[in-house]
């Protein structure tokens, strides 16, 4: 081969290897750029000693070796002897760990927690990553590598980290035909057709990524469930996935279609009080556990949006959940029963319906049932007040359901960091047991003394090369996992870690990116649904604005049901003069929100029908404020676009230009939202958009005419 050709090939291969296609997520382990930090690490870390023979222990060891080699640019070898700078990662089966007198701390670490401590053993300076179990060691290893990736000092570490929530779960809304409901990152990563024989490397990398942020469960299938997944053919496939995930500490769960006894069992009924039905579920569950001995349990959407459920037989949600709970109980399984219910036929505010149905059932569920509640009362809107069920069912473990996929938050094209939104809900004070009764304390079980706890995040993962479509959507997967482990973490810390690991430790890049990530949720709310507007998006696919929609078959699917704009004003009166949904909250919360003058601006139109000329805190009228917010949203995202352009030199070309193109789309979509909504609401307010703003350049008719028959995720 001629020299230039060899050179060209070498260049091409190197180019391919270096391509940043986003596949490596936050686990890139590239050589650290800060030479001072690098030298410190290189002298401070000399060898590793690990324990255990399990697959999990082997993964921890490999992760540590690979991570150190990548970050430090040198091989750190396993040793038999402790020397200065040894990293000892293991359980008390390792003599070094047992002799460190970590007893008390280890007792607190429980089954999954870990300790990382820089200490001295036999006169040698070491760093110990200690845990009671191999999975704890793996979590600690990831944590330690994160410290290095983010260039933290390691000479005086003393960390005890224990998950606050037991079951930290992803919910995949993945169908057996590989489409993903509300998925914006391609098709499902589960290749059902090739399973169980073909184990895609992605399954392993998925498990590793989840373990790195502490996620320990995955519901493989859509809550709009297909009973076929419970048949032998599919259970073999599920078992293959479960086997792949197990060493990473991840349990598999399935969605149970309530009518499965009829559809795949040949029974005439699925009535939960029918003994044949009960027996069918027991047998089915026993069969599942034969395939998957550590099967986590079932997630159920029942009597909601057309899904079958116990109410088809005049039974309650508790009857349905308890039947399944009895079937999995002896195997240690749980049932996650969703509270996302509302009915068009019920002549009451949709906001109130889940509470009305579930609160009376408090205390009636079996011990292994968790009621899974969305963060807000309607449906993952850009901003919702916390769900009134949090605080209303002290005798039932309530789990949080967040939506990580951005169904209502810009789908595949908008850069929105969701951690601030998650935190807003977790930190909300329900006052259910006096001041300081936060949603987080209800979810982690500490407020009401529950022994099981869980959090679910509707996954944003697909088979796109970079997993999540938008490069910044990876941050939402990451943030969800980190918060499920520790809901006290600050969104800024999570963003900081994620940016440094995913892109670079360069200070300017980190500072600027972090700033706009932290602002991004409010920016989106401003240009989509300011001041408490909600559910005004396109029909079915939920893409783009459509506040005028009024012709869907169900009143509670129409945007006009939610914003209630008329010549007098806009917003949903949920005070005593309206639906009185506020009565579902503790007095302290309701009292603040029921008064138009004390209700925070961000929730105003959630609870009040407000006159167009109402004076806001800012001194502007409501109409002016609405215009102001929409314009502020667009201006802010344009500013983000400008900031991103300045960051080009700090990162790779691929991801830089992907984000640049997506931001251009986002700016256009923000302008679309602003113009379409203001032109429409103006037909009621009958006032001009204040003059200093650039005026909409298209007509309302134009915006109304737009159609998106193939919008993704629908
Ligand atoms: C899985 C919303 C979504 C549906 C989703 C449903 C749910 O209505 O638009 O796609 O169905 O929530 O959470 O069950």
Write down the Rg: 26 Å
* Largest β-sheet summary: 8 strands, parallel, barrel
The structural class is alpha/beta
Low-confidence stretches: 1-17
Strand order of the largest sheet: 6-7-8-9-10-11-12-13
Percent of residues in helices: 25-40%
CATH superfamily of the largest domain: Glycosidases
The CATH C-level class name of the largest domain: Alpha Beta
Mean pLDDT: 96
Write the CATH fold name of the largest domain: TIM Barrel
* CATH A-level architecture of the largest domain: Alpha-Beta Barrel
**Based on DSSP secondary structure assignment, what is the total number of beta strands?**
15
Portion in beta strands: 5-15%
Compounds present?
4-O-methyl-alpha-D-glucopyranuronic acid
Name the overall outline. Answer: globular
In whole angstroms, how far apart are the ends? Answer: 52 Å
Number of domains: 3
- Report the total helices: 23
Spell out the key features of this protein.
TIM Barrel, alpha/beta, 714 residues, 15 strands, 8-stranded parallel barrel, Alpha-d-glucuronidase, C-terminal Domain, Chitobiase, domain 2, binds 4-O-methyl-alpha-D-glucopyranuronic acid, 23 helices
Give a description of the structure.
This protein is α/β, with parallel strands linked by helices. It has 3 domains: 22-161, 2-Layer Sandwich (Chitobiase, domain 2); 167-502, Alpha-Beta Barrel (TIM Barrel), CATH 3.20.20; 526-572 and 609-705, Alpha-d-glucuronidase, C-terminal Domain (Alpha-Beta Complex). Helix content is 39%, strand content 10%. The strands form 3 sheets. The protein has an 8-stranded parallel barrel. Helix 3 (55-72) runs parallel beside helix 6, helix 16 packs across helix 17 (507-528) and helix 21 packs antiparallel against helix 22 (653-685). The two termini are 52 Å apart. Residues 1-17 have low confidence and may be disordered. The structure holds 4-O-methyl-alpha-D-glucopyranuronic acid (GCV). Residues 173, 181-182, 223-224, 301, 305, 340, 379, 407 line the site of 4-O-methyl-alpha-D-glucopyranuronic acid.
